[in-house]
Amino acid sequence: MTQCGRAHPPGRAGYPSPVTVVTSVNVNGVRAAAKKGFLEWLSATRADVICLQEVRCEPGQLPVELRELPGWHAVWAPAATKGRAGVALLSRKAPERTAIGFGSAEFDNSGRYVEIDLPGMTVASLYLPSGEVGTERQDEKERFMAEFLVHLTELRQRAAEDGREVVVCGDWNIAHREADLKNWKANQKNAGFLPEERAWLTRVLDEAGYVDVVRQLHPDQVGPYSWWSYRGRAFDNDSGWRIDYQIASPGLAERAVKAYVERAATHEERWSDHAPVTAVFDHRF
């Protein structure tokens, strides 16, 4: 576990009031992850809500152990293109409302966004396009970002009017600061650390009014990284990127009491190239 160094994840004991635990993780194919340890992690987690990205399958393709999850309410949002993207939300409490997509003609069927309403709180799972400089993939990423910023702004405004808080969790595929990736100097012209991408994420925080929960709690820490390439010894050398975020409305961010990355102890124990990012909020729905 990474949290300003290493620490064990918190239980509910020891907090002055009831808490809500939210976890986000890109599973890099949920069926493959299930064979490597995801199900064991799921049975042990103390999360109340889990945001999944890059599920890469439709609900009907899920093995029975994933299709039937006792104690969880699941909302799956697969991509129209089979075997690509896909997001999901698992919650202990039944959602009051669910929504797939954010009103985009281009992206609502791409398996990149799903949100649910729980009492007093909207939780969303996001898989932002990764992009690739000089290709249509980067153009797609830029179109997505332009539309999504509008949605984020309107979402927070609506939530404020309704007296609700918001947290948008997921793989944002952008390292915001130099402290968010190990080799930042070598990646300044690569997708994920381009100046215009980083500027867009600044707008999410400054203009749309959200807060990066992990960075708020650990303002001076390098990382904690949440993704490491499978190539070479990136994981062993902790040569990673922090691209998985929990971006919250200010009221909810103020109630964040702990945030950490559930980094596997060894390379062999990983069940994804990403690690879960977990936040604990002094809030109970």
From TrEMBL:
Probably binds two magnesium or manganese ions per subunit. Its cofactor is Mg(2+); Mn(2+). The active site is at Y127, D171, H274 (proton acceptor). The record marks N173 as: Transition state stabilizer. Pfam families: Exo_endo_phos. Keywords: Hydrolase, Magnesium, Manganese, Metal-binding. The record marks H274 as: Interaction with DNA substrate. GO terms for molecular function: double-stranded DNA 3'-5' DNA exonuclease activity; metal ion binding. Transmembrane segments: none annotated. SUPFAM superfamilies: DNase I-like. One of its GO terms (biological process) is DNA repair. InterPro entries: AP_endonuc_1, Endo/exonu/phosph_ase_sf, Endo/exonuclease/phosphatase, ExoIII-like. Mg(2+) binds at N26, E54, D171, N173, D273, H274. Residues 24-274 form the Endonuclease/exonuclease/phosphatase domain. The record marks D244 as: Important for catalytic activity. Coiled coil: none annotated. CDD domains: Nape_like_AP-endo (cd10281). Belongs to the DNA repair enzymes AP/ExoA family. This is Exodeoxyribonuclease-3. It comes from Kitasatospora atroaurantiaca.
